[in-house]
Design a protein that fits this description.
Oligomer: single chain
Distance between the termini: 51 Å
Number of helices: 14
Number of domains: 2
Strand order of the largest sheet: 8-7-6-9-10-11
Strand content: 5-15%
Amino acid sequence: MSQFSDALDKAKIALIMHKNSVFLSTIVFSLKHIEDYAIQTACTNGIELRINPTWFLGLTPKQQVGLLAHEAWHVAFDHITRAGDRHFPTWNKAADYVINNMLLDSSYELPDGGLHDSQYNKMTTEQVYASIYSKAEEQANESYDVDISVPSDPEEVKEIQNQITEILIKATTQSRLMGDAPGTVPGDVVMAIEKIINPILPWNVILQDFFSAFAANDYSFQRPNKRFMPDFYLPRLYSEQMDHLVIAADISYSMVQDFPIFITEMLGIRETVNPIRTTIIPFDTEVKKVTILNQDEKIEDVLFMGGGGTNLQPVFDYLKDKAPTVLLVFSDLLCRRIVEDPKYPVIWCCIGNQEAKVNFGKLIHIDTTTLDKKK
């Protein structure tokens, strides 16, 4: 391995260990990292992160971590495609002000020369751009070392936007499920992600994207990567974090007709995350026969029979001392809400009840027109 690769790996691990960094770390690990001596410093197009190795090795370890976090925020804020017809170097400069102020507030260290000015705190990139833009500034910024790039081909831009969307869904999911403090992801980023996701992606794609966060893409020091030892003690990729998937299936009368669709989604989710155990909890006003499956047993063999009304409380009572890795609830949620957060991730898949609300977890409304097409 090269000196640059060693330093980059150490910086990635240091980013993982930084407080409330799950969101940024997920973005960084989702990018393709490329050595590029043709650029001065570093640059991202939302899919790739290109770094000049000579420049990178001249940074301190903390500055290297700050650089990775900086580029990740460019992806998170979609600075790559938000510029529109603005003067791009000036737009990049405004974006750098916004990001670097955030990083300093979060105790990251910037590479020497990194722009920061407290007068731009809490401002959007558009607001900073409007504040600094002028013809004179445009000319002055012609030689600005831009660290974001966007292709000229509209089809390629569209593809980049789609891939960035997938990265942000994954990063937001990881942030919520793995313990980042509330507010770690700025509200405007969350809102932008929601606007991107909800009108474009069918419910089953959203569901699969949320569960893909549990696939083999995390790192652990408890499972060291022996390829780097003994010189470096680095974590390795692992997928064993999905220990116990619980699926609560509403078998009340109004839900039975949609079970073929639910079975299909359950199969896809198990294939994605490969849980060690899967517990199936059929319920209506009470928990029915619970089935626990190992990795070799099939959901198709589970018999779902029920009817009557819906009561979620027995499901949460049953799980009180069982600490699932994640609970997936399929229901119309036409029942009393669960108020107390069980302190484990919950994903609600709601059908036929657009007015449904939940007090915790992620709520996904299932589009019945999509269901009809899939039957």
